[in-house]
Amino acid sequence: MGVIGELLITAGLILALFVVYSLWWTNVLADREAKRQGHQVRDRWAKAPAGPGALDTKDGIGFLHVPAMKNGEVLVKRGTGTDVLNEGVAGFYTSPAKSAMPWDQQGNFTLAAHRDGHGAKFHNIDKIKTGDRVVFETRDVWYVYKVYAELKQTSKYNVDVIDPVPKESGKTQPGRYLTLTTCTPVYTSDYRYIVWAELERTEKVDAQRTPPAELR
Amino acid sequence: MYGWIWRHLPGNAWVRALTSLVLVLAVVYVLFQYVFPWAEPLLPFNDVTVDNGMAVNQ
After folding, report:
1. Of A29, A117, B55, B58, which is most buried, counting CB atoms within 10 Å of its CB?
2. Are the Cβ atoms of B48 and A115 closer than 8 angstroms?
3. Contact at 8 Å (CB) between A115 and A178?
4. What is the pLDDT of residue B55?
5. pTM for the model
């Protein structure tokens, strides 16, 4: 067998290994990191269960629970750069449009996370249907959102989807919205997949951190 | 290429096989630890945010 043939086989093996790396190994690393950081946030909450410090935006502001995605809890941190998202967390937008916070009186709480690899926290975003509940957990409050619109494919330059009032979702009045963004189709990033939800109710966190009815 | 490496490894067949295995594992380690993390951001598989095409999303 010639040297060229051996080189081609080697190249094929390296590409196969890259797939293994992208779809498996980055998940292992990211899940480990996300779990560690999630524990840190919960530790901090346990040490200071009341008073100021609830809204620390640096180490994670809380956890996203999406029963329809069947992936447990997702830590939410500040920023949507790869350095943040590769830790297996969801990030809230700081640019091109700044995300509102769930506790703001109005605005759009906009999140991004990986579809594949690096924890793949929004892998099952296509399983979310209108009417499903999305719950965001902070130290003191459960924010229960109800999904009202999905956009299965849009341009990656469509920044209007994260507007404070996302008109493409059909809304015209200011409100307390939640927007999830990730890439689509799976394994590529040609387009973006968007899910919009609106705040339905809030519930105070009790001493046992009993989850709201939507998560039981 | 691989034949050349095999012929230049010392020892009998068993030692050579073992050395080959270690070499393969070393290559895989270097790929996973250094090469792939470097190459990944250069490939368009993992962009998940919407942007206006110029912003660095931080």
Report:
1. A117
2. yes
3. no
4. 41
5. 0.88
Domain that holds residue B26: 2-42
DSSP A121: T
Q: Which of A89, A161, A180, A183 is catalytic?
A: A183
What is the Cα–Cα distance from A114 to A88, expressed in whole angstroms?
A: 8
Q: Which ranges in chain B belong to alpha helices (H)? A: 2-8, 13-30, 36-39
Helices (H), chain A: 3-20, 26-47, 82-85
Is B23 inside a domain boundary? yes
Phi, psi torsion values for B40, nearest 5 degrees: -60, -50
Q: Do A189 and B46 touch (CB under 8 A)?
A: yes
* Number of neighbouring beta carbons within 10 Å of residue A73: 17
Under a CB-based contact definition with an 8 Å cutoff, are residues A144 and A178 in contact?
no
Q: Which residues from chain B sit within 8 angstroms of residue A161, using beta carbons? A: 50
Mean pLDDT in residue range A72-88: 93
Q: Is B50's CB within 8 Å of A79's CB?
A: no
Cα distance between residue A34 and residue A42, in whole Å: 12
**HSE-CB of A123 using CA atoms within 13 angstroms:** 13
Q: Does residue A15 belong to the interface with chain B, where contact is any CB pair within 8 Å?
A: no
The fold of A3-215 is Sortase; Chain: A; (2.40.260)
CA A110 to chain centre: 9
The DSSP output letter for A60 is -
Find the closest chain B residue to A86 by CA distance. B46
Each residue's pLDDT tens digit, A203-215: 999 989 999 999 9
Question: Does any domain span residue B33?
Answer: yes
